[in-house]
């Protein structure tokens, strides 16, 4: 695992063709993200019209920032009625956290988060359909299907691979998370108006902050524009 670098891309910031924009409503995937891997993923529709580049891009792991907009009360209630809110596994159904009343006063999922994502066929699972799955680097206690997610994809980490075991797949994904955090925790990779501490690399696993946060210098206005929902 340590055979690959823990930081990718130049310090100055993303290189062409990045940043690449992608957005849409969070849809349910194959339901394995949380249950089997302990790595919840939010899937976005792979839409040839909205994201023409996706058909030609290399299958593999990318990283960047996600902006989440909380589902509006009506949408949250509707999603809940359809049983699409809650854990992937269906075992821990959320009954209260995203109820209609709660959603109104709890913009719990709104905000900017570092993310790592997989675009491809997941050879380990022999998928025949290409998916775009985003793992947000923040320990949310529940899913939020239906919420609108906007992505600024800033860089590429590695090609998609097959693995001999689930453990090997999970270990590689965990290292992808380290790469994403460390790569994003540089001023040139952090949006203007945000702090590099948001990417979390200053925090050693389970330890104290080691470096002072810097201010971001990356300009990506569309990431913060209001969505016409
Ligand atoms: N699946 C693979 O078969 N090969 C991979 O190299 C691979 N890399 C991934 C990297 C990240 C950051 C994430 C979030 C997922 C990756 N997956 C990969 C997909 C994984 O199999 C998938 O999240 C689960 O199957 C849940 O749908
Ligand atoms: Mg998923």
Automatic annotation (TrEMBL):
Residues 15-185 form the Riboflavin kinase domain. GO terms for molecular function: riboflavin kinase activity. Pfam families: Flavokinase (PF01687). PANTHER family: RIBOFLAVIN KINASE, RIBOFLAVIN KINASE/FMN ADENYLYLTRANSFERASE. It comes from Sporothrix bragantina. The gene is FMN1. Pathway: Cofactor biosynthesis; FMN biosynthesis; FMN from riboflavin (ATP route): step 1/1. This is Riboflavin kinase. Keywords: ATP-binding, Flavoprotein, FMN, Kinase, Nucleotide-binding, Transferase. Residues 1-20 are annotated as: Disordered. It is an enzyme of class 2 (transferase). The keyword Coiled coil does not apply. Gene3D superfamilies: Riboflavin kinase-like.
